[in-house]
Structures are given as structure tokens and as C-alpha cells.
Amino acid sequence: MASIQDKIVLITGASSGIGAACAKAFAQGKAKLILVARRLERLEELANELKHTTQVHCLSLDVCDRFSVESALKSLPESWTNVDILINNAGLSRGLDKLYEANIQDWEEMIDTNIKGLLYMTRFLVPGMVHRERGHIINIGSIAGHQTYPGGNVYCATKAAVRALSEGLKMDLLATPVRVTSVDPGMVETEFSQVRFHGDIERAKKVYQGITPLTAEDIADIVFFCASRPPHVNISELVVLTTDQSSATLVHRRS
């Protein structure tokens, strides 16, 4: 295992779910954390929890806003500018409607966050990694990027884009020591389904009814594992499912 102590790790979507779990996992490894999300109050709560373990810098930022991303990253204090690990975790799904009946605003939000946000963060941070000859980009994808399911249309398309962008970036970084990893989970019980169903908690609960889903901590453990491999080891793509799930659509539910 390679040490990640004192490495600067930037995590988008860090205010909850997989992002917050990653923050805690990397804090245990003594990495320095830049936590990015729109909800500053949630970020500050997490930073307060972790401040006795490691150094934390919070950025209240909407990754969909290209100019805000560029401005925020350029204004980082000098001691925080050399980001070693970028975890592109910010992402969401909206709705489960047929393509021809869906809310177009839901499409815009998924495309802007899942694709454009990832692109903006990558574009502004990876040049520094190449220049310093060290770095790792870890994109949080989804089983939805491998297999489309009914009602998933645009969400699945955005996660297929994450998979393609990860592959393309890896090719572009060949002959550099910068690594690229895509971690693609199946069913993880976080706020994901609540966001998908616009806050309908009861409907969200039914998604995980009768199964033992993955947890945010499960995914954070995997992300940490990928980041802590020796420099010559790059875990290119990793698909992880709960044992109760065998594909995007096949799930065993116990009564």
C-alpha cells in the first residue's frame, strides 16, 4: 500500500453520501482534504468533525458553473493548489420517466452535473498533475454506464459518458504517471433515490426494500484502495454490486 499521508485530495459532492464517506476514509489516511459542494453548512459540519484528524479546506461551489469552478480553483491558498487526487463524485439522477415524457429540466441538471461538472474539474486540475508528474483522477461512475435500464435513459447516458471520458483521459495521459480510475457502483443507499424522486422519501425507501444495499462507506473503502496502490498500479475500472444485485435490472428482494 502506498501512503496518501499529506497528499491533497479534492472531493466534489462532499457534503453527503459517497463524497462525505470518502472524506472520512481519506482523513483516516492523513490526507489533506479540499471538500467541494454547494451546501457550505454541511461541508463545515463535516470539516468540524474531521479537523482533529487532518487539515480541511472547504469550497462552496456549483461544479456546473464553469467560471465559478475556474475562479474558485485559481483562488485556492498556495498551500492547497497542488491537488494530488481528484475524486469526481458530484452527480445525481432526476426522475425515472420515459424519454418522451420526461422533464427537460431534469435532463439539463443531470448533464450539467454528471458530465460538464466532471469535465470542468478535470480540465482545470489535470494540467497541474501532468506538470508535477503525479496525480490520480477517480471518477464515480455507475453500473448505469454499462447497462441501460427502463426509465434510466438520460441518467444512463451521462454515466456512459463518464465511462467514455475516463477511458479517453487515460489514453490522453499515456506516457505520464497520472492515473485514471472509474469506480462504478450498483445500488448504494444514500440520498441518491431521494434526489431522483424529488424528495419522495417513501418512494426512495422502496428502491432498497428487501435487499442489503451497498453503503457509502463500502464505496469509500474501494476508492481509498484504488488511490493507495503503488504508483505503477492503476485500477482502471471497477464495477461493484451488492450481492443481492447481479445487473442493472436484476435484483433479489427478500420478502
UniProtKB/TrEMBL annotation:
Keyword Oxidoreductase appears in the UniProt entry: yes
Cited InterPro entries: NAD(P)-bd_dom_sf (IPR036291), SDR_fam (IPR002347)
Recorded superkingdom: Bacteria
Similarity comment: Belongs to the short-chain dehydrogenases/reductases (SDR) family.
PANTHER family hit by this protein: ALCOHOL DEHYDROGENASE (PTHR42901:SF1)
Molecular function (Gene Ontology), one example: oxidoreductase activity, acting on the CH-OH group of donors, NAD or NADP as acceptor
Keyword annotations: Oxidoreductase
Transmembrane feature ranges: none
N-terminal signal peptide: none
Protein name according to UniProt: NAD(P)-dependent oxidoreductase
Origin organism lineage: Bacteria, Bacillati, Cyanobacteriota, Cyanophyceae, Oscillatoriophycideae
CDD domains noted in UniProt: SDR_c5
Pfam families, A to Z: adh_short
